[in-house]
Design brief:
single chain, alpha/beta, 3-stranded antiparallel β-sheet, 6 helices, 20% helix
Length: 235
Amino acid sequence: MNKVVGSADEAIRDVGDGSVIMIGGFGLCGIPENLIRALVRKGSKNLTTISNNVGVDGLGNGLLLAAGQIVHHIGTYVGENKLLEEMVLTGKIRLDLVPQGTFSERIRAGGAGIPAFFTPTGVGTMVAEGKETREFDGRTYVMERGLKADFAFVKAWKGDRMGNLVYRKTARNFNPMMATAAKVTIAEVEQLVEVGELDGDSVHTPSVYVNRMFQGELYERRIERRTVRKAVAST
């Protein structure tokens, strides 16, 4: 089955107002840049986004934030986006911060059909407020719910026309888990290849999880915070 569509805009044709969307990436690494830009063009509102972070000002999920399209975000890190800080403090957006390991497991659980699990992370802190706790083997654990979404936007290095995906190095991050945890998974790939060109043992996301895909056109690959070593004076 050929799952390739002509563009990012066609791929997100049914992402409407109020959608819950998982968006892959860690910082600016492995983010579905073309899908995010297409969603800004489409203008869908009242979105709930599930992503490690909310991009930076002017790039990634930061574009959706600046366009006023996000009303609720679930993630783990917000330190690179000043606009998000302003919106949270003024009550313009609801923010749920989740410990990163818990965040990963909540997505994995959602994709595996596991409604909830217990973890020691966050016990005795505001993370556990209002949640069920239980003791196992003398240690207290807090119950966390699995995460699912209407759509998952993922970005892969290579993909064949059936939807098998291969991610490159750190860009694998949350993408494979999110691909399993949504009703509709949409993938953008840097390289689109024919069926049979990918080594089956190298496939990270099997085609069964992918509904639509397309070849991306522009990747900025911007560095969030450039750090260079100070020059050492010669003697």
